[in-house]
Design brief:
- This is Fibronectin type-III domain-containing protein.
- Helix content is 29%, strand content 26%.
- It has 24 helices and 45 strands.
- Strands 2, 3, 4, 5, 6, 9 and 10 form a 7-stranded antiparallel sheet that branches.
- A hairpin with a 6-residue loop joins strand 19 and strand 20.
Length: 1056
């Protein structure tokens, strides 16, 4: 606390009414209007006045309370009086309470200020002997006398930009400031009419305006154009409308030395003011984030409860702000009037910072709510896309009604309760609090909620044609379910509640005792709800055919059946469970079963029987087992690489088989990586393992496919994976399945870039009572153990073997086995992982034998990590006859949209003509029906890592800048995050392409950029002017609507 040293104070008027000779109470920061020391006629004798004509404007980028307070040039004491509500704001001062409603809003404040004249009261000739009311001083009604007033007026225009302008924030702010600057110089008018360029007019339309001024208008401006017209008239409007802007206050004790004991005017420390301002800022940011979250949450009947809850949070924070302001006001008055110790004020602020409003706790709270909202939105997406659902609690007329009740939200929030408790507790009563953040969905209930919703959706989809079943979904509060945050499923049969647990899909079928076309088909019961199954339905499919037919229905819930009447051939089988009201989801398809084979179990002789076609047996065996290779084996740990059977990569060429160029540096990881990659690529193309870079040098050039291969290898390396090669020729229409198995191709490059977001691996660590040395004795024993482990897990969980990987075996007192599960969608991955977790933690799991017979009982759980995905080039990926050098900036039309040639780039065409066998029209070039448009996608490394860490696909994009505008363009598009491609390469996608350095055989280092040329399905995107600097960006709302068909390469010239 400091004591005033200058005798005269000069606070801002803030719209308050003042006149010379008026009394002022510093303790309450209020003028005393009904009592005066001298007669008004006497005062006028000692008043001087003079003109101070001046005007000016300022433009500010404003986004905080502190900046708004600084606009008014308030001293610390007046700031605190404003913060606490001791001074009521009026006129232009109301701007201080105006704040932006969303985090991504941009705000610009234009201040126009005028001063007209100054009046001064001389106190040299005034004394207490001619005072009208001398008792004023001793009664402590006032502390100061108004001896000076500066007259003028201030007007503030607050421009708010909520919509995205399509530019980066820096460029956007610069353009807006230039536009506002132009307004102030009146260059914006020509012949009395508002003149704007097209870009300026477009930018102006993104602005809305609020007016705060020291005089009232008949109609306040709300648009840029209205402000422009008003701004021209401001000098005239303000000429005769001046009010007090600043006052000078003379201490009364200087007029009467006997009142010297009343001269102690405590001033607040700047640090206390700043901390108080920051306290309110935190609350504003909290409220703003909830507002943003509410705005982003789709408006659906099933999400009504979330909107209601978020509205309650906003109201609670607003109420807390009011009560906090009242507490600060009480402390401030006590501080000003009674000289309260500053420490009490400081302790109160410290209490608020330390407990309820510390940054970590508020961040955790808002993050918890955001994650909860996103998960519930994902769940409702799943529900809405599954089957026709009635939202609400009214039972419909139907023989069977399956009702899903989601009750994960609480009406009362512990964090908000703590806010109010801490506010009203005494400082000496505050103890360290560790209130648990109220997560709607957490590790305790998320698995259960997700599983039940997934099962509900799968069951609804499996019975979508069954008109006897109706589905109802509703949201309720946890308080109505004894605080159980979960999902409840109730079956009504003829409106009467009946016990029913939705079953999951049965396990994958297997053939045993196969002999001369006769075998036993077995499967495992569903992990969940098996007690609801009364029978099983068996489907079969002839190899090479698409159709599945019902082959057999069991008499009861037995888990096997004998097959003997099938014609000789190759078949796959699926299983469905039959319940009281419908069928379960179908199991995964079995492996191909050849009824021509004979596989007795167990073998009756020591040596395996010779098959009738011995040349086919290795192929069949190879196709059904994963490829297992040991990366490292030590006495403590073996790390493994497991790939699907169809992976079939070209083996990397060892360094000893490579003759490198003279410029090769064996100690350079980049050189080793480059030439091993090129050597493997050449071995695939030329069918040789001896690669000579001296006889056939690698020359870096945009037209050389090898240059593109090196660039792709560097891209893969930066993304933490590797580039591999294969002689196989896979289609591009099953990329999600192949990426889940760990392999992406050029046709699914956007899936590859999104793999760490869209594809997650659920990792488990199993403790097994096995001997590490026995397992790692030979490569064969380790490989057999891994294959057997995958088979055992697949049979118990009921998922494809390709989705299961083994990462490591580690020596402990027994062994630790690191395994992972990755399916084509995260929901499926988490559902399979949850089933695996439940099985591992079931004490009966040992009865299943195999791997599970050795498991050590403990509480097992999984964690989700980004999936490891390799980028694989196929021998026939490229189609050189369609390669093209774009020497000029031409324009054509594709899919009804302009096709802008990528001037200065060289295209390496992909062979895609037969990669999408079900669609023959997408690649046409005559604008016929079904043809897709052309767009470009960049490969910026830093952007990719940011995108990949959160994912590029819909449910993982965190910054979807054009989502609001897209919804306005087309309200029917799904509520998903978008992918972005550009209409132009230069100025568009190239802005988001990183530079890769390539070193060729002569040691030259050349920089290149690579951009993907894509076809984009019309009707699957909206058009925007940002975030590109040229052309448009297309926001695509279906990842399958993007198909790369060329890779563009460009050499980056060194800038002089």
């Amino acid at each position: 606390m400091s004591i005033e040293t200058s005798p005269v104070l000069a606070p801002m008027a803030l719209g308050r009414s003042f006149q010379l000779g008026m009394l002022y109470d510093f303790k309450t920061d209020m003028p005393v209007s009904d009592v005066s020391l001298w007669d008004d006629r006497l005062i006028t004798n000692y008043v001087k006045a003079w003109s101070i004509p001046s005007s000016g404007y300022e433009i500010h980028v404003e986004d905080s309370l502190a900046k708004r307070l600084d606009l008014f040039q308030l001293d610390s004491d007046l700031k605190m009086s404003v913060l606490s509500g001791l001074v009521e704001l009026s006129h232009s001062g109301k701007l201080i309470d105006d704040r932006k409603q969303g985090e991504h809003h941009r705000r610009f404040v234009m201040k126009y200020s005028v001063t007209t004249q100054q009046h001064e009261l001389s106190t040299n000739h005034l004394s207490m002997h001619n005072a009208k009311y001398p008792q004023v001083i001793h009664e402590r009604i006032a502390t100061h006398l108004v001896t000076g007033i500066l007259y003028g007026a201030e007007v503030y225009f607050v421009f708010n930009q909520a919509a995205d302008s399509g530019e980066s924030p820096t460029i956007n702010d610069r353009n807006l400031l230039e536009l506002l600057q132009k307004l102030t110089t009146y260059q914006i008018f020509q012949n009395g009419k508002l003149y704007l360029t097209d870009n300026e007019r477009k930018l102006a339309k993104t602005l809305t305006c609020r007016y705060y001024g020291d005089f009232q208008l008949v109609s306040e401006p709300t648009t840029f154009e209205q402000v422009a017209h008003l701004f021209r008239r401001l000098p005239q409007l303000l000429e005769d409308r001046s009010i007090p802007k600043q006052v000078w206050l003379y201490p009364l004790h200087l007029l009467d030395r006997s009142s010297i004991r009343y001269c102690n005017f405590p001033h607040v420390n700047n640090d206390l003011v700043n901390r108080s301002v920051e306290l309110f800022e935190r609350l504003y940011r909290l409220e703003m984030k909830i507002n943003d979250l509410k705005a982003r949450t789709p408006y659906r009947p099933l999400l009504y409860q979330i909107h209601e809850q978020l509205s309650l949070y906003i109201a609670a924070i607003g109420k807390f702000q009011i009560e906090l302001k009242k507490q600060i006001k009480d402390l401030w008055i006590e501080f000003r009037q009674d000289g309260m110790n500053e420490k009490i004020f400081r302790d109160f602020l410290n209490k608020m910072y330390m407990y309820p409003l510390n940054a970590k706790k508020t961040n955790n709270w808002i993050q918890s709510i955001s994650e909860g909202v996103q998960k519930l939105v994902d769940f409702t997406d799943l529900l809405h896309n599954s089957v026709k659902i009635v939202v609400g609690n009214a039972l419909v007329e139907s023989p069977f009604v399956l009702r899903l009740i989601i009750h994960v939200l609480e009406k009362s929030d512990p964090f908000l309760n703590e806010l109010f408790q801490c506010l009203h507790s005494a400082n000496d009563q505050v103890v360290a609090r560790n209130t648990k953040i109220n997560c709607w969905l957490n590790q305790d209930n998320f698995t259960s909620v997700r599983n039940k919703i997934v099962l509900f959706c799968e069951f609804a989809q499996a019975n979508s044609k069954n008109e006897d079943i109706q589905y109802i979904v509703e949201a309720r509060y946890a308080e109505e379910f004894h605080m159980s945050k979960d999902v409840s499923v109730i079956l009504y049969q003829n409106r009467i509640p009946t016990y029913f647990e939705i079953p999951s899909k049965p396990g994958t079928a297997k053939a045993t005792n196969l002999s001369h076309g006769i075998f036993t088909l077995t499967w495992s019961k569903p992990v969940y709800g098996s007690q609801s199954i009364t029978q099983y339905k068996i489907y079969n499919q002839v190899d090479g055919m698409q159709r599945w037919t019902v082959f057999h229905i069991t008499d009861d819930d037995t888990l096997s059946t004998a097959i003997s009447k099938l014609p000789r051939g190759k078949y796959r089988f699926k299983i469905k469970g039959i319940t009281l009201i419908g069928d379960t989801a179908e199991s995964y398809a079995s492996e191909l079963i050849d009824t021509n084979e004979t596989k007795p179990t167990p073998p009756v002789v020591a040596a395996p029987p010779v098959p009738p076609h011995p040349t086919l047996l290795p192929v069949i065996t190879q196709k059904t087992q994963p490829i297992v290779s040991a990366k490292t084996i030590t006495d403590k740990r073996a790390t493994l690489d497991v790939m699907p059977a169809w992976f079939e990569q070209v083996k990397p060429v060892p360094l000893e088989k490579i003759r490198p160029p003279a410029s090769f540096d064996k100690n350079s990881p980049t050189d080793v990586r480059t030439y091993q990659c090129l050597a493997t690529y050449r071995s695939m193309k030329n069918k040789t393992k001896n690669i000579d870079f001296v006889a056939e040098p690698f020359k870096a050039d945009v037209e050389n496919t090898e240059t593109l291969v090196v660039v792709l290898n560097e891209l893969a390396n930066q993304l933490g994976t590797r580039l591999t090669f294969t002689n196989s020729d896979f289609k591009y229409d099953d990329s999600a399945y192949r990426t889940a198995c760990g392999v992406a191709n050029l046709g699914s490059i956007h899936t590859f870039l999104a793999s760490e977001g869209q594809f997650q691996t659920a990792k488990f660590t199993l403790h097994l009572n096995l001997d590490y040395d026995d397992l790692t004795a030979t490569p064969e024993t380790l490989q057999k153990f891994v294959v057997d482990s995958i088979n055992d897990i697949s049979s118990v969980v009921g998922c494809k073997k390709e989705f299961i990987r083994v990462f490591e075996v580690q020596r402990t007192q027994s062994i630790c086995l690191g395994i992972g599960i990755c399916a084509p969608s995260n929901l499926e991955t988490e559902a399979i992982a949850a089933q695996t977790k439940d099985q591992l933690n079931d004490h009966r799991v040992k009865e299943r034998g195999g791997l599970f017979g050795y498991i050590i009982e403990e509480q097992y759980d999984f964690k989700l990590e980004p999936a490891h995905v390799q980028l694989q080039l196929q021998e026939k990926d490229f189609d050189s006859k369609h390669n093209r050098k774009y020497d000029f900036a031409g324009t054509a039309k594709r899919g009804g949209k302009p096709y802008y040639f990528p001037e200065g780039w060289y295209r390496h065409a992909l062979r895609v003509i037969d990669k999408y066998p079900e669609d023959k029209a997408w690649l046409k070039m005559d604008n016929s029906p079904g043809e897709w448009a052309v767009g470009y996608h960049g490969t910026n490394y830093s952007a990719l890592k940011g995108v990949i860490n959160h994912g590029l696909m819909h449910q993982f994009v965190t910054m979807d800048l054009c989502a609001v505008e897209a919804k306005k363009q087309n309200p029917s598009i799904p509520d998903v995050k978008g992918l972005y491609v550009a209409t132009h390469c230069e100025g568009g996608a190239a802005n988001y392409a990183s530079t890769f350095t390539v070193k060729d055989s002569i040691g030259a280092h050349i920089d290149y950029k690579v951009v993907f040329q894509c076809r984009v399905q019309p009707g699957k995107f909206t058009e925007h002017t940002g975030p590109v600097t040229k052309g448009k960006a297309w926001r695509v709302f279906d990842e399958k609507a993007i198909r790369p068909y060329g890779l563009l390469l460009q050499e980056q010239k060194q800038k002089k």
